[in-house]
Amino acid sequence: MDLQRAKQIVSTPSSDVEVQFNGVSIWIDKVHEDGKTATVHLRGPGEERTQVSISDLKEMS
């Protein structure tokens, strides 16, 4: 995924865009100032957040 698309998804909270990281469905919480990483958490129960590379995120259609 590219930086602009990640920012667009984050700025549209009502958006139901499926994004995956390593084959697991996640929510993007925040895109970091470095433009390379984002904080994400798993969809569903559990709120554990982790920082990942934006390039490792994949938008599902």
Automatic annotation (TrEMBL):
Family per record: Belongs to the SspH family.
UniProt entry keywords in alphabetical sequence: Sporulation
Protein name listed in UniProt: Small, acid-soluble spore protein H
Pfam families noted in UniProt: SspH
Domain of life: Bacteria
Any single GO CC term annotated in Swiss-Prot or TrEMBL for this entry: endospore-forming forespore
Localization annotation: Spore core
Organism field: Domibacillus epiphyticus
InterPro entries recorded: SASP_SspH
GO biological process: asexual sporulation; sporulation resulting in formation of a cellular spore
Induction behaviour: Expressed only in the forespore compartment of sporulating cells.
Main subcellular location of this protein, as a coarse class: other
